[in-house]
Amino acid sequence: MTYFQLFGISIPALWIAFLAAAFLLSLKLDGWFSNAIVIYVIIWKLSYILFYWESILGLLYFNGGIKGHWLGLFVATIYIILLAPKKYPSIKRQAFSAALLYIYAFEAIFNLLQSNFLFALIQAGIGALILSLSNKLNKQWILLFFMIELLTLSLQHTLTLTKILTFSVLIFISILFTIKERTNG
Fold first, then answer.
1. Contact 167, 142 (CB under 8 A)
2. pLDDT digits 0-9 by tens, 106-154
3. What is the spatial distance between Cα 79 and Cα 51, in angstroms, rounded to a whole number?
4. Greatest CA separation found in the chain?
5. Three-state secondary-structure class, residue 129
6. Cβ contacts of residue 79 below 8 Å, gap of 6+?
7. How do the domains of the chain map onto residue ranges?
């Protein structure tokens, strides 16, 4: 894992990629995406209290780890499915492209930070293609781009169960909204 120094603090490249991809997408998407990211980060960070509590200082330095990741993803998913559509009807249109764009933006930035320029270029190129097709995406496109992402990760030898399951949750949410949109409209 690559770390970067910022004012004497070591920050993992993974966190930088997560925040940069979230920031880039929040510029394009409505407030529901930013809200979901903030919910995820707060739950993930505070889940340290539930799973590993030792001292108040630990809360500053640590997070809930994989358990906290899943809890944060679960709570953010509940927000996206149940609460966000009431305030942001655009979520039904944006969920498809948001899931894919986040996955590809995250991986492109992460590969760039890891100095893996070939895969960063591949991920960014596919992300640009998804951006250009965002109005035409359907379930088949989503699954195709998801499979291409899995193939790319396996070629890099960075395919983990956590990544597969996390990306699967994002894809599931977007497909759920597509089904919901077609049923209602």
1. no
2. 999 999 999 999 999 999 999 998 888 877 777 777 778 888 888 888 8
3. 22
4. 53
5. helix
6. 35, 36, 39
7. 90-185
141's tokens: 């496109």
- Which three-class secondary structure string do you get for 57-96? HHHHHCCCHHHHHHHHHHHHHHHHHHHHHHHCCCHHHHHH
Instruction: Give pLDDT tens digits for 18-69.
Output: 999 999 999 888 899 999 999 999 999 888 888 877 777 777 677 888 899 9
Q: In angstroms, how far is CA 7 from the centroid of its own chain?
A: 26
Torsion of CA 88, 90, 91, 92, to 10 degrees: 130
Specify the DSSP element, H or E, that contains 184: helix 161-184
Are the C-beta atoms of 41 and 22 separated by less than 8 Å?
A: no
CA angle 79, 140, 112 (to 5 degrees): 70
Question: What is the total residue count of the chain?
Answer: 185
- Compute the Cα dihedral for 157, 162, 163, 167 and give only its sign: positive
Taking each helix axis from N to C terminus, what angle separates 117-133 and 139-156, rounded to the nearest 10 degrees? Answer: 180
Q: Tokens 């997070």 belong to which residue? A: 63
Provide the token pair at 74.
């679960």
User: Does this model's pTM top 0.90?
Assistant: no
Say if residues 38 and 114 touch (Cβ distance below 8 Å).
Answer: no
CA distance 107 to 134: 18
